[in-house]
Amino acid sequence: MPIDFEALYQSESRRVLATLIRLLGDFDLAEEALHDAFAAALEQWPTQGVPGNPRAWLVSTGRFKAVDAIRRRARFSPLEGHAEPADPGADPGAEQPELEDDRLRLIFTCCHPALAPEARSALTLREVCGLTTEEIARAFLVGPSTLAQRIVRAKAKIKEAGIPYEVPSRSELPERTETVLQVVYLIFNEGYAASSGVSLTRADLSGEAIRLGRLLVELMPEQEALGLLALMLIQESRRAARATPEGDVVLLEDQDRSLWDQGLIAEGMALAGRAMASSQLGPYALQAEIAAVHARALRAQDTDWKRIVGLYDQLASLVPTPVVALNRAVAVAMAEGPAAGLALVDGLLAQGGLAEYHWAHAAKADLCRRLGKAEEARASYQRALDLAGSEPEQRFLRQRLAQWAPK
Question: How far, CA to CA in Å, does 352 sit from each of 102, 361, 364?
Fold first, then answer.
């Protein structure tokens, strides 16, 4: 049976890289070793067979090749703090405590406070998840060269400052938690937003983020880690209903709720309940509860919009961003009527912070449509279409433009 090396690379490369970084203590050396290991597998496995533990084989082979490369360059010295390379048949990570997963270690290293905030997220998405520089640059709305420089500087800082590759002690966790949670949620959103035509690797990022979220909850079962995992689980429960088989966008109110994964919803709602039991609520706990309110409604018209407005009031006090304000405005429109929502959306657009955000213009268009303001609706749908980046979003907006705002 032929070996599917592409699938193997997609499933194992980031795990192997994380362990190689731990063993070699150098990002660039580990990346080179990773590619050397897969090249060796491509050459040897078709004739010698797949080893019983492919991941361990790749880790050990990569480590051996890295050491050999250093020796060939005549500047080898023992890697401080590391033993000699393990036997290729052994699992180099097997002796590590269960919670100290190598990718979790890698996330904490990439999110060290000594690194610039924008570099932490970019480095984690690049090294932990394997996103390309171009993909990360689009997520951060910067040029690829700027993003690449951030990553290079972050790697250099880790090496020069001797930032440890480890899960921090419990006393150090609070200062590191916020950024780690932000990074995990960025990873989730990168996968959750993936639509038809993207690679399996990117579409699976949401599952990877949930796995990392579970590890974080196990390591530090505090309110915001619980809230983040709850939020991701409830959002993930809707994946099958979020798009048509052709990849067209289906809004929450129009989704077939029988397609929602009730197992994920139940788990997420239980976690959200634990997070909301805290005396001091954080942004992820509040967002998780908003998602839970939607999940409790058997039909869209049963949604408790007044409860959602109240939750957005609390969220806006903690995270006073234009997008949170826009989401609150939409909730107000559902609770109090489109006129109330439109006044809020118009005010936000006038402030300028959402001028280039296509969903803000789409929200205005929908509210104008509901109020019978056809020309304003058409203009806003057209503006949203002009700003939309993905083909599924463009198709959705073209359909709305044709259906609800005809010439």
Answer: 43, 12, 14
